[in-house]
Amino acid sequence: MAVIEIDTLTVERGRVPVIVDLSLGVEAGTVTGLLGPSGSGKSTLMRAIVGVQLVTSGTVKVLGAPAGSATLRRRVGYVTQAPAVYLDLTVAENLRYFARVLGASPRTVSAALQTVDLVGYERRLAGTLSGGQLSRVSLATALLGNPEVLVLDEPTVGLDPVLRRDLWAAFRRLAEHGTTILVSSHVMDEADHCDRLLLLRDGQLLADDTPAGLRARTGKASLDEAFLSLVEATA
CA 74 → CA 28, 36, 69, distances in Å? Predict the structure, then answer.
């Protein structure tokens, strides 16, 4: 069953099309990768899915409701590229504050810290953390309400290979427990962690397939080469 349903979505900025007549679905309990170069429309599409993007035409539904509906506020978690935490609060203070906002149990704070591997950082001021650590605090805040859908915009940017590996393992565990995850990246070597891949270029969907399916379709061994092959075919 598709928990994210997009039908003929078009988004323009200053009459310049950013997303063009896009239709797709994301199935429940999957890790779906949204891939493409910078400027392909990934962040715009994610904002449309969480209901904070003005759309020109088309519809976006999440869990059966229009994107941005009040009923979705606790059911959908969203992590932007820029960390969305208070720099003058500690890690624990940030998480306790957002737990209260979401009406989540305080017990979810420790679970979220464990998921993003920040146990031991509770008393650190957010403003003293590295960029990668701040990104993980933002991810922890999104996990507090145990969302059914998790939308992650470039969550592994600035992280070292070990943390990237551990976060992808965490995403997989969440999906196995029923969370639907849509994660964007421009790093093609992360694509093999996903159940399904959505490849965007210039606001259009080049492919919606599994990693294995993309390799078979293009005859390429690497997903990077597969993506380039699809780009060249549509040039």
Answer: 17, 29, 10
* Cα–Cα distance measured from residue 48 to residue 50, given in angstroms and rounded to the nearest whole number: 6
State how far Cα 46 lies from the chain centre.
7
Q: Is 61 a domain residue?
A: no
Label the pairing between strands 204-209 and 196-201: antiparallel
Residue 133 counted as domain residue: yes
Q: Take residue 133 and report the two structure tokens written for it.
A: 């650590």
Tokens 């979401």, residue?
Answer: 102
Q: Which amino acid is at 107?
A: R
Residue 130 included in any domain: yes
pLDDT tens column, 12-27 = 988 899 999 999 999 9
Torsion, CA 159, CA 162, CA 170, CA 39, rounded to 10: 30
Q: Please identify which residue in the block is written with the tokens 């979810």.
A: 108
141 touches 110 (CB < 8 A)? no
The vertex-148 CA angle with 143 and 149, nearest 5°, equals 85
Whole-angstrom distance, CA of residue 185 vs CA of residue 182:
10
* b/e sequence 62-79, b meaning 16+ C-beta within 10 Å: bbeeebbeeebebbbbbb
pTM: 0.90
Specify the number of domains making up the chain.
Answer: 1
Segments of the chain scoring below 50 in pLDDT: none
Domain containing residue 125: 75-145
Q: Does 129 fall in a domain?
A: yes
Give, in order, the Cα–Cα distances in Å from 120 to each of 98, 141, 169: 19, 16, 20
Structure tokens at 135: 């990104």
